Amino acid sequence: MATQRCIRRLASISSKEAISSRWRPALLPQSRRVHPTYLTRRTASTAPSLGQSIAKAIEADGPISLVHYMRQCLTGKDGGYYTTSPDPFGNKGDFVTSPEISQIFGEMIGIWIVAEWLAQNMCNGKKITLIELGPGRGTLMDDILRVISRFKDLSKQISGVQLVEASQMLRDTQCARLCGDGAKPEWRDVTWGATSKYFDAPVSWYEDVRQVNIAADEAPFYIAHEFFDALPINAFKNTSDGWRELLVDLKKPTSNLILPAGAQQQEPEFCLALAPRQSASARALNSLSPRYEALSRIADSTVELSPDSHSIVIELCKSIHHANAGGALIMDYGPAETVPVNSLRGIQRHKRVSPFTQPGRVDISADVDFGALAETALRPDLNVEVHGPAEQGHFLFGLGIEERYKQISKTTSDPEKLAILKSGFDRLTERGGLGMGRIYKALAIVPEANGRAVAGFQRFASEYEAAQEQDGEAQSADERPAA
């Protein structure tokens, strides 16, 4: 089996590389995105806070769409979560992601790329460009490139690494990780660039996936890990008059207390409010998917919809079809078959909080609608295949994570390192309750190939499937990642 042969290639990685101090986050209870303190901190100022600015806009023009609210809170130039520090007191971060839990995760993603490259006849001589959406610290891409470096033929085909990242601070961190300590992105004609420490591959940064440049002789491989969950959503509720959009409005204060002169103004709070009439997007909802039309016959049902996810998936599919090679791997959390319901959440300091308090200081995300991603990708004009979604545990076992775990375990006898190693392995693959192996999903988009098997999505006999059979609990519709 191709993936097993790939795993054997990794045996030469030293124990120092295999068990590193960054595995320690595996012992923490929370999961998802890491937002470290190297982001710019909010400075004291007489300027209004982001929440106050949003409140003034609502007071002047009325409630705003949830998409607009989330964009301002997450990526707004003045006070957005990703452009200013969510914790001015130096908290290490709000989340821990799979690549930070264990490097085995990133190695499995690297194995998936190698397996697809082999399955696609080594992409028929095309050069390979690697594209990651939302690369965080650069940890995942670093692990991927380390795996690819073990495959000399593939290494020679890599034409470059393209990272979609809007934050200058994160670009600097990614550059240091991928290009060596002290390396900084340099302006190169049309974008920022540097040279990777792995086989001298050029690295480029872009703010938008539509800016990514794919040459006619290149096959694109996209990686989007915990990217789609952070894209803004619209929300709709079914009423007796049809779908109505849920808008963001000011929450009424609980008291009319008058503050003394000079006292600090209280931060406003927000809430969802039903639009007084149907918007154009609400009227068009049923035409977007049979799933939404079916829900329109159920009283008080709700729908969450991500317009940006739709347009980005189309971009990925078009480039894969145009090259007739490559692929996209999307890994995130959300239901496999149902439409996400009431999944909007805020996280601050590893705890779940309201997404409508302290805008810009709270991370906001929502479940990914994998059904909607698949529906979009399967449009007849896009000419691609979709595999999955598969539970993360199933996907990782199919790629050989168990073999890699056993392989690395033999490189050390240190009890602490072995405990960290096992903790990371268990955390990534466990499927009980809200285990990451269950609530996180993987979905692959590849060129049309008559439905061939894709690594990680094939059926297989293993201890993982045995555990699935023993666990007869049905997955609840509102499963969420643990805070």
TrEMBL record:
Transmembrane segments: none annotated. Its main location: mitochondrion. It comes from the Eukaryota. One of its GO terms (molecular function) is protein-arginine omega-N symmetric methyltransferase activity. Arginine methyltransferase involved in the assembly or stability of mitochondrial NADH:ubiquinone oxidoreductase complex (complex I). Belongs to the NDUFAF7 family. This is Protein arginine methyltransferase NDUFAF7. It comes from Dactylellina haptotyla (strain CBS 200.50). The lineage of its organism: Eukaryota, Fungi, Dikarya, Ascomycota, Pezizomycotina.
